[in-house]
């Protein structure tokens, strides 16, 4: 029965999209977790919701509006943090609540909390189109190429930003690049995982992997593996039990996290 | 690689933070091969001065030249090794092995997409060997003692084979034995490997015999090429504005 689901084109698309997102989200998530910047993913997901709401209200592409909103917000957050020296958690809290408030106002202007918006909030395996896959493929490949090209620099920055800067690494530029990549990944992920749950796919795999007490490279690989396993199990459960895909994936992540916690009690 | 006798050349350097003057009219040169101690009271601007030299802070006015090149055009940052203050205090859960941390010292040398070359591997091994952390290679940095972490951070700074090593009060949380090994190492690097040392410290008595220049930083920068004279008790008491005792230790 599990293999039967792969006969359906919508499930094939959901799996391809889900696996791409799993790799991208867990890889980029490792850097924000290590920098204690985990709420960035949650905040940008809420900002994406503003883009989706604007798209639905004005009949524009919700996906592209989410990408735009998320990108602009990520630059503003990084600017306030790095240039104005504001506490990152305070900046994130302001954007998180502010964007949610804005999204609620826009949704209320639309007059109804429709089913379409619901699928963006919690993810839906039925909503991934072939066009979405192409967009994810192109932007996902670009994000992946940048993450791999600057992997060691981003790792150094996460470990010690000052020493990395003193060593000639262009920290400010790379910080802006990282938040931009995360903004795009989040906006592209909302079809499958949903805006309210994508943060978990970025944060839980690295946090669970860190519990195993390994070096950065094995930790990153384990984090990707955890995300991939969760997406496969979550999407399967979503198909079998008619659950929202995002919620099913996040529950799988939570189970793996609890297992990691129990195995590695320190 | 060109040889510049002057590693750091500073003229009319002023720095303000939120309207408060931290450094005023600093002017000095540090030459190749020198062992320079930076001393002064807490809050006097020692760390700020080092951060300005490294480009981590932007001066309000004044000029800084590194290896004879104006700082804004200087690109060979791998020629300067930096061990910051409290570097031994590391997040205990950070997923990084000793080998990975020391390897960071080569990242700027490797460039974008650069994979670890044979030269990189050799430089990392030599730095770890020199600091006596080779046997800790696969251990997580967070699981080490303060002294071991300090040695790892210095190994990272040495991995790029720098011409000058800047260390900023690195002995926080480090036991006395490790401190003495550290002073011995700085002396060896300076005398045997001809590496220039810039060392922020409160414990000047320990390195009194090694240093060739002292910068006393307390908003202004006083330079002495006669350290023995500057670290006399009466002179130190005058500079610090409070009775000071200089204690010499045997290495």
Overview of the structural elements:
- Chain B: This is Zinc ABC transporter ATP-binding protein.
- Chain B: Keywords: ATP-binding, Nucleotide-binding, Transport.
- Chain B: Residues 8-244 form the ABC transporter domain.
- Chain B: Belongs to the ABC transporter superfamily.
- Chain B: Pfam families: ABC_tran.
- The complex is a heterodimer of chains A (266) and B (251).
- Chain A is mainly alpha-helical and 266 residues long.
- Chain A has one domain (4-263): ABC transporter involved in vitamin B12 uptake, BtuC (Orthogonal Bundle).
- Chain A is built from twelve helices and no strands.
- Chain A has helices at 9-34, 39-58, 62-82, 88-110, 115-122, 130-149, 151-159, 161-166, 171-189, 198-210, 216-241, 245-263.
- The longest helix of chain A is centred in the first third of the chain and has 26 residues, at 9-34.
- Chain A starts with 8 loop residues before the first helix and ends with a helix.
- In chain B, 29% of the residues lie in helices and 25% in strands.
- Chain B is globular and about 50 Å long.
- In chain B, the strands form two sheets. In chain B, strands 6-7-8-3-9-10 form a six-stranded mixed sheet, with helices on both faces.
- Chain B has a domain at 6-88 and 164-240: P-loop containing nucleotide triphosphate hydrolases (Rossmann fold).
- Chain B contains eight helices and ten strands.
- With 251 residues, chain B is of the alpha/beta class.
- In chain B, helix 2 runs parallel beside helix 5 (146-158) and helix 4 (118-130) packs antiparallel against helix 5 (146-158).
- The interface between A and B is medium-sized, with 25 and 31 residues.
């Amino acid at each position: 029965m599990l293999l039967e689901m792969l006969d359906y084109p919508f499930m094939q698309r959901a799996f391809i999209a889900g696996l791409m997102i799993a790799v991208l989200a867990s890889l980029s998530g490792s850097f924000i977790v290590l920098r204690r910047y985990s709420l960035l993913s949650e905040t940008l997901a809420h900002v994406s919701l503003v883009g989706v709401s604007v798209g639905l209200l004005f009949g524009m592409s919700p996906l592209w509006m989410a990408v735009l909103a998320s990108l602009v917000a990520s630059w503003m957050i990084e600017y306030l943090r790095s240039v104005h020296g504001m506490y990152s958690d305070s900046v994130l809290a302001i954007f998180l609540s502010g964007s949610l408030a804005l999204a609620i106002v826009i949704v209320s202007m639309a007059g109804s909390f429709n089913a379409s918006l619901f699928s963006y909030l919690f993810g839906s395996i039925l909503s991934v189109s072939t066009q979405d896959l192409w967009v994810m493929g192109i932007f996902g490949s670009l994000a992946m190429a940048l993450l791999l090209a600057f992997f060691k620099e981003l790792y150094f920055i996460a470990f010690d930003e000052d020493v990395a800067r003193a060593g000639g690494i262009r920290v400010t530029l790379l910080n802006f690049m990282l938040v931009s990549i995360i903004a795009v990944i989040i906006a592209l992920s909302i079809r499958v995982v949903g805006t309210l749950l994508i943060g978990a796919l970025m944060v839980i795999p690295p946090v669970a992997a860190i519990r195993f007490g390994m070096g950065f490279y094995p930790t990153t690989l384990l984090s990707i593996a955890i995300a991939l396993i969760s997406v496969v199990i979550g999407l399967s459960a979503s198909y079998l039990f008619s659950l929202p895909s995002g919620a099913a994936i996040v529950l799988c992540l939570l189970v793996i996290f609890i297992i990691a916690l129990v195995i590695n009690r320190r | 690689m060109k040889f510049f006798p002057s590693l750091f050349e500073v003229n009319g350097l002023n720095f303000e933070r939120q309207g408060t003057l931290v450094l005023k009219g600093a002017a000095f040169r540090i030459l190749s091969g020198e062992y320079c101690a930076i001393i002064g009271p807490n809050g006097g601007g020692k760390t700020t001065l080092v951060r300005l030299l490294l480009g981590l802070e932007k001066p309000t006015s004044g000029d800084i030249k590194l290896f004879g090149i104006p700082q804004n055009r200087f690109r060979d940052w791998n020629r300067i090794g930096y061990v910051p203050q409290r570097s031994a205090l590391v997040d205990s859960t950070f997923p990084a092995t000793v080998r990975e941390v020391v390897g960071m010292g080569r990242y700027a040398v490797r460039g974008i997409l650069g994979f670890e070359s044979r030269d990189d591997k050799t430089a990392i091994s030599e730095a770890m060997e020199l600091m006596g952390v080779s046997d800790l290679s696969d251990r997580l940095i967070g699981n080490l003692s303060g002294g071991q972490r300090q040695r790892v951070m210095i190994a990272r700074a040495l991995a790029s084979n720098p011409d000058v090593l800047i260390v900023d009060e690195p002995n926080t949380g480090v036991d006395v034995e490790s401190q003495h090994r550290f002073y011995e190492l700085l002396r060896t690097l300076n005398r045997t490997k001809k590496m220039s040392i810039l060392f922020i410290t409160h414990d000047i008595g320990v390195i009194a015999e090694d240093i060739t220049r002292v910068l006393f930083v307390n908003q202004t920068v006083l330079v002495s090429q006669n350290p023995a004279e500057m670290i006399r008790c009466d002179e130190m008491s005058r500079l610090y504005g409070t009775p000071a005792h200089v204690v010499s230790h045997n290495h």
